[in-house]
Each structure stands twice: as C-alpha cells, then as structure tokens.
Amino acid sequence: MSAVLVDSNVILDVLAEDQEWQDWSAFMLASCADAKILVVNPVIYAEISVYFDRIEDLDEALPTDYYRREAIPYEAGFLAAKCFVQYRRRGGRRCSPLPDFFIGAHAAVRGMTLLTRDARRYRSYFPKLRILAP
After folding, report:
1. Which tens digits make up the pLDDT trace of 13-45?
2. Are 118 and 9 in contact (CB under 8 A)?
3. Taking Cα atoms as reference points, which of 30, 31, 40 lies closest to residue 5?
C-alpha cells in the first residue's frame, strides 16, 4: 500500500473547521485513507501542536490507527538543506530551512505522495514530487 504524507494545513483545515477548505481537505483525507497509508512526521506534528494545550489532545486528534508517524530520514535532511540553498540563492530571506523543505524532502526521499493545499513551494523545489492539491 502506498503512503501519503499529509501536510499540516490539510489536517488543520479539518480540525479548525476552516470555512473555505474544510470540505476539500476532509474529502481528500477520506479518499486517501481508503487506498493509502496516511503519514505525519515530527515537523507536521509540531505545526499542528500549536493549536493544542495538551499533548494528549493532540494525540487524540492524530490517532496512530489513522496516521502513521514516521521520522524524517537523514537523506531528507540533506535534500532539505540543498533546496534551502536554492531558496536563498533565489532571494529567500529566511536564515534556516523552512518546515516545507523538510516535509517535501521527506516525501521525495521516501517516494510518498504529498497531500497539501499549498503546492507552490513544493513544486518549485521538488519538481518530481507527486502532489495532491487543489
């Protein structure tokens, strides 16, 4: 069974009941869960955690029988750094790699599809990455 790395924005759309994106995100999560393994990594977990006061509540929102938790491989860290160098050369202002670089690199290195609603940066820096986006 193939895996889909789920970007935090998709999960947060559902949890926060975002008026603009909740329906699309809920539909995509359900569709992917029917045929694929849904995966989150520590960066995605951290991005979602800011909306919770207790880790128990976060863990309840991301049940391990629905979302597989996977560490970011060292190869993905290397790829994220290389993409960050490109970003800086193109005029990017951040001084440390953005979370999206770790997320995109993780999906790319593991051969996963990425489910996100903000595909612009991923397409720029990971052109071969399979992306599900509006």
Report:
1. 999 999 999 999 999 999 999 999 999 999 999
2. yes
3. 40
123 Cβ contact partners less than 8 Å away, ≥ 6 residues apart: 129, 131
Q: Using one digit for the tens of pLDDT, what is the confidence trace for 47-83?
A: 999 999 999 999 999 999 999 999 999 999 999 999 9
The predicted model scores a pTM of: 0.93
Domains and CATH numbers, the chain: 3-132 (3.40.50.1010)
Residues pairing with 6 in the sheet: 115
SS3 letters across the chain:
CCEEEECHHHHHHHHCCCCCCHHHHHHHHHHHHHHCEEEECHHHHHHHHCCCCCHHHHHHHCCCCCEEECCCCHHHHHHHHHHHHHHHHCCCCCCCCCHHHHHHHHHHHHCCEEECCCCHHHHHHCCCCCEECC
Is residue 126 within 8 Å of residue 105, measured between CB atoms? yes
